Amino acid sequence: MSIYYRRRPGIRRTKQPPPSPAAVPVQQESQLQNIQQLGQINVPKLESSLHCISIVGQIEGHLVLPPQNKTTKYEHVIPQLVAVEQNPDIKGLLVILNTVGGDVEAGLAIAELIDSLSKPTVSLVLGGGHSIGVPISVGADHSIIARTATMTIHPIRLTGLVIGVPQTYEYLDKMQDRVINFVCKHSNVTEEKFRELMFRTGELARDIGTVLVGKDAVEVGLMDQVGGLGEAIKTLKELTEDPSEGGETS
Amino acid sequence: MILYTALPLELIWEGYSEFSPKYEEITKDGQLLLIEPVSFNRGKIVRLISSNPQDYMNPSLQPGEIINFQD
Q1: Greatest CA separation found in chain B?
Q2: Taking the CB of the first residue and of the last residue of chain B, which one, N or C, has fewer CB atoms within 10 A?
Q3: Burial level of A161, CB count in 10 A (0-12/13-18/19+)?
Q4: Which positions ≥6 away from A136 have C-beta within 8 Å?
């Protein structure tokens, strides 16, 4: 032990750790974390004037969901949207959705923020934008759906877990009206059409409702365009270049 | 809280009765963080508590990141 203590200052004096190797373990650690958390080595550095927020899995609301759920945490997305609005270097926002739905209030909160963002916003639905994903996707200035993506429109289930509120039919009906009103106000679908899609029987095996695949969502007026990433970035660039189109609500 | 989702609710809530994560509030570099300890001195960020919106853009403070603390 005494040798160890006597030697250590000597080693420190002769072997000053050079700055570059000291940075390597940090980089390795962050790469390891990227592999563990994201399944990829390098997260590309953002030097773009466009920002992208992905809304995936369940939208987690007031309760932490069990770990088998992949969730988007609304308490983190909301201040990020504030940061996008506030940062002068960010000119536009791309919202990528692949969600199965989630908390009504958390979803509506994100949808309202995306809608009220003064910068151009484009939403791109890939895979699925189901249930509460519908108001989020129509909240953007321009909404694009991939050819193979689907959107499920169904009523809010009366048998769902309802916490903190009286589980009355009237309450759920009001909740449903909030979603319907938001969707109809921000897309070209009429309320009658949306309600008809929501309560249609015979399409879903376990539920009433409708599944809209790519083109169908555009035909009913819910989404603006069928497309992909190329179209989304192109539209966003057009919107950021021409500020007069930024306030378009559809 | 009402879930409006296309997934069956029994699939979402499966294991909820046994699910009781332990969270701790810590301060690291002046940031108040809610973390779930994973091992000694290491924890997974659950939530960032800050009034500066730009903090939420910091990649090292995203939920799910593993951080060392108490050092």
Answers
A1: 44
A2: C
A3: middle
A4: A55, A59, A95, A97, A99, A107, A110, A111, A114, A123, A129
Q: Show residues of chain B in contact with A86, CB under 8 Å.
A: 53-54
For B15-40, give one letter per residue: b (16+ CB within 10 A) or e: eeeeeeeeeeebebeebebebbeeee
Contacts of B1 in chain A (CB under 8 A): 61-63, 103-105, 161-164
Say which amino acid occupies A155. Answer: P
Least CB–CB distance from A79: residue in B5, B9, B56: B56
Rounded CA separation B7/A59 (Å): 12
Range with the poorest average pLDDT among A9-23, A83-97, A213-227, B46-60: A9-23
Fold of A49-244: 2-enoyl-CoA Hydratase; Chain A, domain 1 (3.90.226)
CA-to-CA separations, A65 to A39, A229, A247, B21, in angstroms, rounded:
22, 30, 36, 11
Domain residue ranges of chain A, discontinuous segments joined by +:
2-36, 49-244
Q: Tell me the per-residue pLDDT of A129-162, one tens digit each, with 9 for 90 and over.
A: 999 999 999 999 999 999 999 999 988 875 555 5
Is the Cβ–Cβ distance between A74 and A110 less than 8 Å?
yes
Banded pLDDT at A27 (limits 50, 70, 90): low
Decide if A130 and B2 are in contact by the 8 Å CB cutoff. no
Whether the Cβ atoms of residue A62 and residue A74 lie closer than 8 Å to each other? no
CA distance, residue A63 to nearest chain B CA (Å): 8
User: ipTM score of the complex?
Assistant: 0.86
Q: The tokens of A157 are what?
A: 């289930």
A75 contacts in chain B (CB < 8 Å): 47
CB atoms inside a 10 Å sphere around CB A247: 10
Residues of A annotated as part of the active site: 131, 154
Query: Which of the two residues, A61 and A114, has the higher pLDDT score?
Result: A114
